[in-house]
Design a protein that fits this description.
This protein is mainly alpha-helical. The protein is built from 4 helices and no strands. It has helices at residues 22-33, 41-55, 64-91, 99-107. Helix 2 packs across helix 3 and helix 3 packs across helix 4. The radius of gyration is 24 Å and the shape is extended. The termini are far apart.
């Protein structure tokens, strides 16, 4: 004879399952409220210094305020490009941004 053993899981709660997109919307709102930069400051600083080194043979020095201004300007430009790309994607009835949307967004005037 085979004995059937029933094991009851005590104290284990079923995990919450959110509808698709709910968590994404929550994260978007959280990012929009944040005042911290989206890109790491050191990565932007390395990129700026590398570009300056390739552009000239002389040593170029940057103040912290100049690097901060370049950082904020770069982020503002990226946000504008992504907003325009999202507008183009939604105009064609899509929710997903494609490469063609980004290319069009980069080339269109503000």
């Amino acid at each position: 004879m085979s004995a059937i053993v029933a094991t009851a899981v005590v104290g284990k709660k079923k995990s919450r399952r959110w509808k698709p997109g709910t968590v994404a919307r929550r994260e978007i709102v959280k990012q929009q409220r944040a005042t911290t930069p989206a890109m790491p400051a050191m990565a932007v600083e390395r990129l700026v210094r590398d570009a300056a080194k390739r552009a000239t043979t002389n040593e170029v020095r940057f103040s912290k305020d100049a690097l901060k201004a370049l950082h904020e300007g770069a982020e503002a430009e990226l946000v504008a490009i992504f907003k325009a790309a999202h507008r183009l994607a939604s105009h064609s009835g899509r929710q997903t941004i494609q490469v063609a949307d980004l290319e069009l967004a980069r080339n269109e005037p503000p």
